[in-house]
Amino acid sequence: MSASNITSSGKKKRRAKIRLEFAEKLFYEKVLQDWKESCADRNQSFIIKKALDNLKLFPINVNGYSELRKIKGIGENIATRLDAAWKNACVNHFECDLPTLVQVRTLKKGQFITFLEMLLSLRVDVMCLSFPSKDDDENVVLKTQPVFRTQSDSDVVMNELAASSSNSFHSSLVTTASSSNIAAPTSDDYDPANFDENRLVLIVDGREKKLNVKHEVRTLSVGDYLWVMKLGDSNEKELVLDYVIERKTWDDLKSSIRQTRYMEQKRRLKEAGIRNVILVAEGLQTLDRGLEQALVTTSVDSRFLVHRTMNAQGTAKFLQTVTGHLMQRLKKERMYGPSFSALQDASRKTKMLTVSDCWLRQLTVCPMMSAERAQQVSMLFPTMRSLVEFYRKNSKSAEPVDPATLLQREFPDTIPRSLSAQLSLFFSHAVL
């Protein structure tokens, strides 16, 4: 121990550490802490933790977006949201421009995240397709409406859904039944005069675990949630109502996109014959712009309504809101639609794979081989064996042609020499 650390009386000196705290900087730290703990995505949680650690190391106060951006690990998205959360708290909670450190400390753990959650209600208007009604199935009308919805504006969502489903459900389910292979005889009819004899039920897919709402669990062939009206005293007939919901957490959405399941799920939802398709994006706002773009594309191109919730509890609250909305409509509107069993049969995944399908997939593995080109090749050579025989005959002929040009000769308009050469590399070896 050095002599400089010992007093004349022989006692060890104590070093006092002084840590300056600032109201705005402390607020940002608490928001990031709450955000990190509520984040289900591990990658996003790591990014937020890194931003929080670097913010704590910053020795002076931080004022607004521009100074937040100077801190390592805090990018444009985090800085924008932190700055907006601070301004939101100043206006709606503290009711002053510069809250004191004491005021910030009065907020408890878990309260800071609410200022971030409220930012989800700041919606960006984009050109989005409205849901078709009975009169505009052929001429879909473009209108400006918010793409992202939150639990704070469920009433707005219900108003838009009500407008899209005006004049009863007959127009969507019966009109689209033919396109989704739902036969007319399987359609059911609901009369509001018999409301007391029937029962509205929320059906939840068996793979959905977290839900604190009254429901029945069944395996659904399409979507995660839908509603049925059980008709008559026996409730044996089940009319499918005009709403289906697909729920995605950010991890689910990322996995679906990477494994190409997302496009297939959207296609099957559109072909199900249910007009109002809602995608519930569950979780805090993601920093992945690719996922945000996927939601915009889903809204604009697929004409789905995208609704944002913070967690499973927010999703349950939204389902309760939709259930209440449907209950009010059932009291006054006559509805038509397919039975639950008919919808299940029509929307069930086709698992049969033919030899022709396998051959087409094998062809498209080759670089530059598109599905259209593969289709043309398969029409002339319906199996792999037939194409192998084609190359074998050429190799044994008296005047063999260069294998790299064989397919180009057969399909001069569609198969370029480069692709013909690629295919010959494999099939020439197969001949040997």
UniProtKB/TrEMBL annotation:
Cofactor(s) annotated in UniProt: Mg(2+)
Summary of subunit composition and partner proteins: Interacts with EME1.
InterPro entries named among the record's database cross-references: DNA_pol_lamdba_lyase_dom_sf (IPR027421), EME1/EME2_C (IPR042530), ERCC4_domain (IPR006166), Mus81 (IPR033309), Restrct_endonuc-II-like (IPR011335), XPF_nuclease_Mus81 (IPR047416)
Name of the protein this chain belongs to: Crossover junction endonuclease MUS81
GO molecular function: 3'-flap endonuclease activity; crossover junction DNA endonuclease activity; DNA binding; metal ion binding
One BP annotation, GO: mitotic intra-S DNA damage checkpoint signaling
Lineage, broadest ranks: Eukaryota, Metazoa, Ecdysozoa, Nematoda, Chromadorea
Subcellular localization: Nucleus
Function (record text): Interacts with EME1 to form a DNA structure-specific endonuclease with substrate preference for branched DNA structures with a 5'-end at the branch nick. Typical substrates include 3'-flap structures, D-loops, replication forks and nicked Holliday junctions. May be required in mitosis for the processing of stalled or collapsed replication fork intermediates. May be required in meiosis for the repair of meiosis-specific double strand breaks subsequent to single-end invasion (SEI).
Record PANTHER family: CLASS II CROSSOVER JUNCTION ENDONUCLEASE MUS81, CROSSOVER JUNCTION ENDONUCLEASE MUS81
